[in-house]
Design goal:
Largest sheet: 6 strands, parallel
Distance between the termini: 26 Å
Strand order of the largest sheet: 18-17-16-19-20-21
Number of strands: 21
Structural class: alpha/beta
Radius of gyration: 27 Å
Shape: globular
Strand content: 15-25%
Oligomer: single chain
Length: 733
């Protein structure tokens, strides 16, 4: 209805996505907040109110361009500014040591101070009166304006302090290839945790005066990867320097409130900060880190004697080549009472790889908490027609809260009438996706074709390059066929999307390759609708809400042992999309739940990947693989010099992610996809079974496990009001 002369759908499209998270981790946090509210848990989320957030991606002639994402230009109607909730955040300076009553007191004389101001966004639970809070911090100058400098003619100095302060919360993940970029990243992390911890302590002391005995029973802090780990020395500093507790008491509290979720299996992804940088920006915290490390290494000597190699590997301080680094993951491991991975295979891998030494000393700390996604956004909201069909078929909408109820769809998977309804919903969703592709790329795609999707951050380990090489293989095969043979092949629309980090050169070259191959394939009159390839720019939540329901095949093809979990695989499976993938991350558990026969699994398993890497330069590479590499290198798709590093990266020992090893098996799995798609009744049955097996992958289940096994938090439902106000139109008197 046009009650205010606007279409609601048009208004919704105009609202910008909140640019607060980076890919999967940001979306996971959003799902967790939704689940914590719906599970009636007394929980809050904290973060930074980035002014620009993740960059807006434009792809011009195949090249990625990063533009600021002005998501706050017109304000954010959902947030509540709390100018009265503000905390001082200090940087730089020096530490003064004073003796008082036989004790040392540490005074941090900062060289720069900014103010963190709170902005609250309510997070309502589903079908419950409970609403929790997401509190984001915005950086403001400690003084709004230096009038004295202005009046004495130093106009520039008067505004520089304001600009320096506001820079901290300006951009999500600034490029950290330079010293200045690293410094800003560290300041952002400290800004967030310091404001958050000051806020938590203030709220606690409202009812506990100045007694911290109950603090570990009232507060549980989950470190979502290593980025907030600087919170460990900051909590120690606040307890000791600001509230007068001793080291032993402060450390006891710290180690009882923190727990740590690790989100990677890649050693190079474990965060490290140069010691000289930390000493410069956070001098008091570097002292505390050294103290924590000294006590920890002494404890290790008591366990393993003078095994300095192992102690050196486990130390928080990494030394070598004349440089010292702070290993943030080691600090998080030492200070946390629980450490968890995010998928069963990931949690086992970290015990034998990146955290092997720690697992041998403290195995009781390690757990698994397989990730999940909220079905309320990623099925009920984004796929309303399928949601309606599921509710009608099950006779209840209770699955929106208890996703395990979807298992009853198995009873209907062979029913031709139900299959027809299911297929009709999928076709409507494909038409919506085809409209999005047309709007973003100008390419018309055939809605009768198989919609084959790979949307995720562009990274070598996620192997978008393997996907592109298969598309070239498919294109070559179609070109060699007669028109009659070609007509018998399954039509396919391949959609790739995702952002490359601004400083990630190889990922940007892969985006250009996708675009170049698409240009060649899409303009070839021999191919027509048999094969299309498009790159969807600026992949975000809003586009995912159209892509996920409209997809039929989704690619999750990382080298086994490199993806911690993945959550997009869960979203696609939950919407009846079949998965082609390796046995990596959550794919392993998805296969257990929905049946490996309802997926297309290929590739080397994680346990043999290390030996395959060692032997890669002696591997007998499939001739078709090198044919495609040579085709790219020769300039068939243009830009031969630009693509040379891409080709080099998959040849010989450089092929770290084993594209050549998995290539033939990938082709076999793709041939199985075509064979299954020709039998639409079989494909639809597998699609139904995919949704029916998705119950485990609700973030509600994940959050219940965190609450019970790690946080020791019980649901606390707010009582319903005794005289609730009626919703809807007011009654006439």
């Amino acid at each position: 209805k046009k009650q205010l002369a606007y279409e609601m759908e048009n208004l919704v499209e105009k609202e910008r996505d909140a640019a607060l998270g980076n890919g999967g981790l940001g979306r996971l946090a959003a799902c967790f907040l939704d689940s914590m509210a719906s599970e009636n848990l007394p929980a809050w989320g904290y973060g930074i109110r980035y002014q620009y957030g993740m960059f807006r991606q434009e792809v011009i002639e195949g090249f990625q361009h990063e533009n600021p994402d002005y998501w706050l230009n017109f304000g954010n109607p959902w947030e509540i500014e709390r100018p009265n909730i503000a905390y001082p955040i200090k940087f730089y300076g020096n530490v003064e040591i004073l003796e008082s009553e036989g004790r040392q007191a540490f005074i941090w004389n900062s060289g720069e101070e900014v103010t963190a101001v709170a902005y609250d966004t309510p997070i309502p639970g589903w079908n419950t009166p409970n609403t929790i809070n997401m509190r984001l911090w915005s950086a403001k100058p400690s003084r709004e304006f230096d009038l004295e400098s202005f009046n004495t003619g130093d106009y520039v100095q008067a505004i520089l302090a304001k600009q320096r302060a506001e820079t901290i919360s300006a951009v999500l993940y600034p490029d950290d290839r330079t010293y200045q970029g690293k410094e800003l990243r560290l300041k952002q992390q400290f800004f967030m945790v310091s404001a958050t911890l000051q806020d938590i302590i203030r709220r606690y002391l409202v009812t506990h005066e100045d007694n911290f005995d109950d603090f570990p029973d009232k507060v549980a802090l989950q470190l979502n990867d290593t980025h907030p780990t600087i919170g460990v020395p900051e909590l120690m500093r606040l307890l000791m320097d600001e509230h007068g507790l001793g080291w032993t008491k402060s450390w006891d509290i710290t180690t009882r409130v923190f727990s740590f979720t690790n989100h990677t299996v890649l050693p190079e992804a474990l965060e490290k900060w140069p010691v000289d940088l930390v000493e410069n920006v956070l001098p008091r915290h570097m002292q505390i880190i050294y103290d924590i490390n000294w006590r920890f290494t002494q404890e290790l000597r008591g366990i393993m004697g003078d095994d300095y190699d192992t102690i050196g590997r486990m130390s928080i301080i990494e030394e070598g080549d004349g440089h010292k680094n702070v290993r943030m993951a080691h600090l998080a491991l030492i200070a946390s009472h629980t450490v968890n991975g995010v998928a069963a295979i990931h949690s086992e891998l970290i015990k034998t790889t990146i955290f092997k030494d720690f697992y041998q000393i403290m195995p009781e700390k390690f757990q698994n908490k397989t990730n999940g996604v909220t079905q309320r956004r990623w099925l009920a909201f984004c796929n309303p027609k399928l949601s309606t069909l599921i509710t009608e078929t099950l006779g209840t909408s209770a699955w929106i809260k208890e996703l395990d109820l979807l298992s009853d769809l198995r009873l209907h998977c062979d029913d031709p009438a139900f299959q027809a309804k299911w297929a009709a919903v999928k076709r409507e969703n494909k038409l919506r996706l085809a409209e999005l592709v047309k709007a973003k790329t100008g390419v018309d795609v055939n809605p009768n074709a198989l919609f084959d999707i790979q949307v995720k951050r562009i990274h070598e380990y996620k192997r978008q390059l393997l996907n592109v090489m298969y598309i070239i293989h498919r294109y070559n095969a179609l070109k060699e066929m007669t028109p009659a043979e070609r007509e018998k092949q399954v039509d396919r629309v391949c959609i790739i999307g995702g952002k490359a980090a601004p400083g990630y050169d190889m990922a940007k070259r892969i985006i250009k390759l996708v675009s170049a191959v698409g240009d060649t394939v899409n303009k070839d009159p021999d191919i027509g609708d048999k094969l299309k390839l498009v790159f969807l720019s600026d992949y975000n939540v809003s586009s995912a809400e159209i892509i996920v329901p409209g997809s039929e095949l989704s690619q999750h093809i990382s080298t086994a042992g490199t993806e911690a979990s993945g959550t997009s695989n869960m979203k696609f499976a939950m919407n009846g999309c079949l998965i082609i993938g390796t046995m990596d991350g959550a794919n392993v558990e998805i296969a257990e739940e929905i049946g490996q026969e309802n997926m297309f699994i290929f590739g080397a398993r994680a346990d043999v990947v290390p030996s395959l890497r060692r032997e890669r330069e002696f591997f007998n590479v499939p001739p078709e693989f090198y044919k495609i590499v040579d085709q790219i290198r020769s300039g068939y798709f243009g830009w031969s010099d630009f693509f040379a590093p891409v080709c080099d990266a998959v040849c010989g020992a450089q092929d770290y992610y084993l594209l050549a090893n998995d290539f033939n098996d990938y082709i076999r799995a793709q041939e199985a996809v075509d064979e299954n798609y020709r039998n639409q009744a079989l494909w639809t049955k597998k699609s139904i079974l995919s949704v029916a097996g998705s119950g485990k992958f609700s973030s509600d289940r994940t959050i219940r496990e965190y609450a019970e096994d790690i946080w020791d938090v019980k649901p606390t439902k707010r009582p319903m009001p005794t005289n609730p106000k009626p919703y809807g139109p007011s009654h006439k008197m």
